[in-house]
Amino acid sequence: MIAYIVKRILGMIPTFIIISMITFIIIQLPPGDFVTTAQAEIAASGGGMDASAVEAMRIRYGLDQPIPVQYWRWVSGFPRGDFGYSLEWSAPVWDIIAGRLGWTLLLSGLALVFMWLVSIPIGIYSARYKYSLGDNMFSFLGFLGLSVPDFMLSLMWLVFATMMLGISASGLYSPQMVDAPWSFVKFLDLLNHLWPPVVIMGVAGTAELIRIMRGNLLDILNQQYVTTARSKGLVEKVVVQKYAVRMAINPLISVLGMQIPKMISSSIIVGFVLSIPTVGPIFLRALITQDMYLAGAILLLMTVMLLIGNLLADIALAWVDPRIRYE
After folding, report:
1. Is residue 316 classed exposed, middle or buried when 0-12, 13-18 and 19+ CB atoms within 10 A define those classes?
2. Which of 92, 158, 257, 297 would staple 310 via disulfide (CB 3.0–4.6 Å)?
3. Going by C-beta distance under 8 Å and a sequence separation of 6 or more, which residues neighbour residue 28?
4. C-alpha 214, offset from chain centre
5. 30-59: buried (b, 16+ CB within 10 Å) or exposed (e) per residue?
6. How many C-beta neighbours within 10 Å does residue 200 have?
7. What is the CA radius of gyration of the chain?
8. What is the secondary structure of 25-45 as a DSSP string?
9. pLDDT band per the 50, 70, 90 thresholds, residue 29
10. Is the Cβ–Cβ distance between 153 and 200 less than 8 Å?
11. Burial of 259 from C-beta contacts in 10 A (0-12 / 13-18 / 19+)
C-alpha cells in the first residue's frame, strides 16, 4: 500500500506539469492582456494612457516576453511557494488567496460532510422501501436538487432570508457583529451564516449520491450472499447494515474524489452570490482583468485538490473494502 501511495504521488508530478501548461495556455487565449484590459477600463472612465506608459507597464510585468519565458517565470517559483505576482493587486498571489482559501476549504469540507450524512440514510431508506411514498418523495426532491443550479439556490435564499425572514443572508456575520469582539454570540452568528451556503453547495451532490446509493443497494440486496444471510434468520436491519451497505458504499467513496473539485467550484459561485470571502470573487475579477498569475494559481489549486481527492478516495476504498488490493 505504501508503495502504491508513493507511486501515485510521483505520478502526480508530470500530471501537474502538463496541467500547468494547459492552464497557462488557456488563460492566454483571450485577446489582449492585463495592460489592454487596464487601458479599456481607464478609457471607459474618461482617461487615457500614452504609448510609452503602456510599453512601460508591459515591460514591468514581463508581458513583452515570449509565452514560454512568461510560463517559466511563473512555474519556477512553485518549489519556493511563490505562485507569481498579481498584476492588479500588486501583491504576491499567495498573500491574496491564503485567507480566502481557508474559507473555501471549510465550506467545501462541511458540504461534503453534509452530503454523506444526508445521502446515505436516505439512500438506504429508498432502497429498503422501494416505490413507497417516501421513496417517491425523495426521488422527486433528488431530481429537483440536480436540476436547480447552486447560483439560483443562492439567489432564492438571499431573497427569502432578506425579504421574508428579515435576516442578514450575505457575508459571514450580521452587520452588527462584523466589528464586535470575538465571543460565543459572534460564533453562533457565524454558524447561522455558514449553514445556508453549506446546504446550497451540498444539494446537487446529495441528490446524486442518493441515487447512487439507492441503485447500488437495490442490486446488492438481490445478491446470493444477502439471501443466505436472510435464510439464517438474521434481522433485516442487520442484513442491510452489516452485509449490504458495506458493499454499496464503495462507489460513493470512488465518487468522493470527484466531488471535491465540484465543491471548490460551487464555493466559488456561492461565495460570489452570498458575499462570502472565498476565492470566487477574486477569481472572477482575475478572469475579467486577465490577471493571469492569480487566475492560473487558483485553477492549479483546484487541480491539486482533484489529484489529492482521488488519491484519498482510493486509499479510503482500500481501507473499507479489504478485497481491493493495489499492486
Report:
1. middle
2. 257
3. 67, 292
4. 24
5. eeebbbbbbbeeeeeeeeeeeeeeeeebbe
6. 25
7. 24
8. HHHH-SSS-HHHHHHHHHHHT
9. confident
10. yes
11. buried
* Residue 37: all three cell numbers together: 484590459
Residue 323: strand pairing partners: none
Sequence-separated (6 or more) residues with CB below 8 Å from residue 323: none
Q: Specify the residue for cell string 431508506.
A: 125
> How far is 38 from 36, CA to CA, in rounded Å?
5
Closest to 321 (Cα-Cα) out of 240, 228, 235, 251: 251
Q: Which three cell numbers stand for residue 325?
A: 488490493
Q: 3-class SS at 50?
A: coil
CATH architecture for residues 99-279: Orthogonal Bundle (1.10)
User: Does 50 have pLDDT greater than 70?
Assistant: no
Count of Cβ atoms closer than 10 Å to residue 301 Cβ = 17
Q: What is the pTM of this model?
A: 0.77
Mean pLDDT for 201-206 is 83
